[in-house]
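Example with several molecule types.
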Amino acid sequence: MREERWVFEEEPTHIPARDKPKLECSQVVIATVEKKHCGEVLKVLTREAPLGEYKHVKRIRNRAVEEGKGLEGETKANGKGRADVLEVVVCTSHPQEGGGWPVGTRGVEGGEPRGAAAAAGVQGDAWECMPSALKSVLLPLVCRVSLAEVPRHSPEDREQLQDWNRVWPVSYKVPAGKVVTRSAKIKVSEEDKHEMLKHLGLVRELATGESGQRREAGCGACNAAVIVNPTTKEVVGLGQDQTKSTDWTTWDSRLVHAPSPLRHAAMVAIENVAEGVRSWGNKRKRSDTETGGDTAPSVSDRGDGDPEAEPYLCTGFDCYLWREPCTMCAMALVHSRVRRITFCVPDPKWGALGGAFRLHSLTSLNHHYEVFHWPVIEASKP
Amino acid sequence: MTPTTEFSDGEEGFMRLALAEATKAFGEGEIPVGCVLVRGGEVVGRGGNKTNESRNGSRHCEMEAIDEVLGKFEAGSLEVGSDCAMSKFWSEVDLYVTCEPCIMCAGAISLMGIKNVYYGCSNDKFGGCGSVHPVSDQGCGTCGGGEERFGAENVRSFRCRKGLFAEEAIAMLQDFYLRGNARAPKPHRKVLWMDRREQQQEH
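Resulting structure tokens for the full complex:
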């Protein structure tokens, strides 16, 4: 068997239909606690000030370890014995709107929000931010109380996790496998993943393999798209990038002998599906006038209504691409009413489904699909 | 319904031709949007929406008109050979369309290297020239892994001028939706094969 240059990773990543969250910070009160008191402090805090909507924030930070990783921190002047203390998030520095975390903060005395600049060396102020119930319990257990910033929201991916951890350690839940999407109908089960990989294998072959069409197109690095009917699991259309091709045919059979920068893989694949629908329609027209006994192709059977009804564009179909689609292709797939898009190679500069922006987050569009990124890694060369 | 004075007689004339393409599309049961491509004061391509006939949701009038022009290259009616000449050719093409190009078509316009677009009414559902997403400013890249596009690398944006015969373009779309789109899935309204003007005469 031939060694593949590109290898699929194990899980796809769902790209949600909202803009990527930006780093926002909230001010919190933190306590410096000796390791031996940590257990007790946590017990109190879990009971008196649960994290609520700050569940992504790790309650404890080991400053020594964090700094060992090369993260920014205070000067080394106070370094002695630091390994023996931990920093613990106590509560927010001001009451939260609509309750939530931390429960106790309603009892804040003079609880004005304080700027980050004021935080340095204002132990008194930080102490005043704490609810009185906590003060009395924590007084004998903590060395020092101060203010710090933590990320307000949970990071969306590993990259953000890494970035945001520099502010304060947060956690990130790998979403794949348990994804509940906008419609809550599309979940990625093991069976689904198997199916996705099968079609992505074809996409990889069309985009990077040694297929004749590709050589003919003279395309070094290509894109390919495959459109699948998930009900029948059959490929209903496919296309390779033809932007370098000097000979191609329009949908209405006109020959063109000039290259078109619009002959992207997704556009060609959509055209391929339409071709199937048209020929099915023509066949049916003929059989209506003749005897009947028409065998409707798989393209018509979507399991969502009348199998005799002509399919409408690519409604309910899934599209697999090697590269992240550009703006034109991503919008063409919206017009085609595709159900789900999965691509492998992201394009941070021009990609329209997470790279440069997220087309599917635009709420005014009349159709929305789900988007998955299935990462690939380049196999190390021998 | 008088056009504003911002536009020249020539520009109005070309938009009238685009409206004629839209009317033709309407007669063929297509969404009535039309466009013409103009170079050096001459119409080099024209097209109407063909999404229904082609069963392809991406066959908007801009795509039809662009492919029409590309198809002429073989016939020798346009003397264009190298990629460089292609770039120059397309940078001199003006596009007149009755309705704001959608996000897809705005991407195509950027990829072709067309620099000037005139449109009638705005499209607040799909508009790619600022109404929904500013593709006209940001441009569109390629997703084929190379840089197969016309026009200079740095210039992907294009200039838009809107409002030329906007009312006429809107009236035609209203007529269409009043009639109902025969091919839309499970039509919400009954399809009336009747012109709005005929209806008005009945009343």
